[in-house]
Automatic annotation (TrEMBL):
Alphabetized GO MF terms: lipid-linked peptidoglycan transporter activity; peptidoglycan glycosyltransferase activity
Residue ranges crossing the lipid bilayer per the database entry: 28-47, 67-87, 93-113, 181-212, 283-304, 316-337, 349-370
Reaction catalyzed: [GlcNAc-(1->4)-Mur2Ac(oyl-L-Ala-gamma-D-Glu-L-Lys-D-Ala-D-Ala)](n)-di-trans,octa-cis-undecaprenyl diphosphate + beta-D-GlcNAc-(1->4)-Mur2Ac(oyl-L-Ala-gamma-D-Glu-L-Lys-D-Ala-D-Ala)-di-trans,octa-cis-undecaprenyl diphosphate = [GlcNAc-(1->4)-Mur2Ac(oyl-L-Ala-gamma-D-Glu-L-Lys-D-Ala-D-Ala)](n+1)-di-trans,octa-cis-undecaprenyl diphosphate + di-trans,octa-cis-undecaprenyl diphosphate + H(+)
Major localization class: membrane
Any one Gene Ontology cellular component term annotated for this protein: cell division site
Biological source species: Marivita hallyeonensis
Protein name stated in the entry: Probable peptidoglycan glycosyltransferase FtsW
Record's bilayer topology term: Multi-pass membrane protein
Length: 388
């Protein structure tokens, strides 16, 4: 009866997993991810050797680690994208519980690695940043609650998801990690908007964010220092923003040439937070525009496919993941060109980082799982049925 009403697409009984996955996955988005990872390795070859030399490692130590973590992330991405939405939700709930507990215990067992913010666990051979794994799993849990609240007799999902969001944002702000806190709040706000939130409520939330930012500015030296540096009309050429700004200016349209850039010798985070400055200096505006186009393709194609989805949970979760992925890339690049205050946020699949790469693989794998073509009707079938 469901197929007669919603016009479901017939499935191929007994079809093997891999052919079915390849037939239904968004190949354009998948290709863009692999290209971004390739660009990340290319830029890592330029940005990592100076840091390796300063730390006494082999020249391509960090590139090899990036290849390992990135390869692991791509495997996780593909495996996750093969799962059904229900299985994705089950694993995400379990992962969220562990990530939430890990985030809550950071003040007691975490470390700041000399960067002034307790965001990581030191695990001997590397570090683990719980907030990176919390973001995608939080989106799934929040979308589940918001979707459940739309059902007759359902739980107060909007209230519960809001309480969960506030608790996470407060824990992130105390690290302090205002960038990730804003990203979590943005992801929830987008899903709440798609779920039908009143515009006045969203305006009120924006006012609360501005108020919280004012309080943080007055009480957090870390936050105030970054805001003051962003608002200052003069950029100190010896700061990270100064080096990045000069590198982008020097790169011009076509760049100074492969391996000829100088910013990687000055920036301690050239291989992570400011990798786009390396790209702009050595390869110019051309490569930067290609990177932007790749991110835009992933986000736009995902949202277009989700517009045809009739399951509220899938639509909300996919929208949250896609928007959070795109905004993180925008924030990273915006910081490098002084459009935004410094946030300490990586460029997905391009920057070096074990936690960010693997967590990014999980997030995009979930997104690809939600945007796969499944044997079901689209939301347009319901709308056409109502108009008859």
């Amino acid at each position: 009866m469901t197929e007669m009403v919603y016009g479901a697409v017939p499935s191929r009984a007994g079809e093997p997993v891999l052919p079915k996955w390849w037939r239904t996955v968004d190949k354009w988005s998948l290709s863009c991810i692999f290209i971004l990872f390739g660009i990340g390795l290319l830029l890592g070859l330029a940005a990592s050797p100076p840091l390796a030399e300063r730390n006494g490692f082999a020249p391509f130590h960090y590139v090899q680690r990036q290849a390992f973590f990135g390869g692991t992330a791509l495997i996780v991405l593909i495996v996750t994208s093969m799962l059904s939405p229900i299985v994705v939700r089950r694993f995400a709930v379990i992962g969220f519980v562990f990530a939430f507990i890990a985030l809550a215990l950071l003040p007691f067992f975490g470390t700041d690695f000399g960067k002034g913010a307790v965001r990581w666990y030191s695990i001997g051979f590397g570090s683990l940043q719980p907030s990176e794994f919390l973001k995608p799993t939080f989106v799934i849990v929040a979308a589940w609650l918001l979707a459940a609240s739309q059902e007759l007799g359902g739980p107060p999902g909007k209230t519960l998801s809001f309480a969960l969001t506030v608790s996470i944002v407060l824990m992130l702000a105390l690290q302090p990690d205002f960038g990730q806190a804003c990203l979590v709040l943005f992801g929830w706000g987008v899903m709440y908007f798609v779920a039908g939130a009143p515009m006045l409520l969203l305006i009120g939330m924006a006012g609360l964010v501005i108020f919280a930012g004012t309080v943080a500015y007055q009480n957090s030296e870390h936050f105030a220092r970054r805001i003051d540096g962003f608002l200052s009309p003069e950029v100190d050429p010896t700061t990270q923003l100064g080096y990045a700004t000069n590198a982008i200016r020097e790169g011009g349209f076509f760049g100074v040439g492969v391996g000829e850039g100088q910013v990687k010798w000055s920036l301690p985070d050239a291989h992570t937070d400011f990798i786009i400055a390396v790209a702009a200096e050595e390869y110019g505006l051309v490569l930067v525009l290609i990177i932007i186009a790749l991110y835009a393709t992933i986000v736009v194609r995902s949202l277009l496919r989700l517009m045809r989805e009739r399951d509220p949970f899938i639509r909300l979760a996919g929208t949250g993941l896609a928007c959070m992925f795109g905004v993180q890339a925008m924030i990273n690049m915006g910081v490098a060109v002084r459009l935004l205050p410094a946030k300490g946020m990586t460029l997905p699949f391009v920057s070096y980082g074990g936690s960010s790469l693997i967590a990014g693989g999980i997030a995009v794998g979930m997104l690809l799982a939600f945007t796969r073509t499944r044997p079901q009707g689209e939301i347009g079938d319901i709308l056409r049925g109502r108009l008859r």
